[in-house]
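Here is one chain, start to finish.
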Amino acid sequence: MATARTELAEDRTVQATERTYAGWLRTAFAAIGIGLAFRAVFGDFEPPWLARAIATLFVLLGAAVAIMAERRACRSLDRLSTHNVAAPRLPNLRWMSWSVVGGSLLLIAGFWFLNDGGFSDG
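Its structure:
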């Protein structure tokens, strides 16, 4: 009886880790969205590079959150084993997090180079 309860508790912990990872990815997307919104709303700042720099910081923060979420989730899931539930596959978690990072870097490149291909004032 105690073994079954322990196995169920471990399964619940795996599921909680998966939900926590999803929550951290939502937070990463929120930070990226704030950066994008900041760039869109305050694009006419003086000096012109300031809005891009602030937006870049938020997008980089989102990318960092995605990486931290992946590392924490993979570390936790490596220690746990499932019994009655299917555990998330670690390569899928890594693929999702690194896709967020790649998209963030493309967005930052768009902030800085989209206007004319260089570091312009506009």
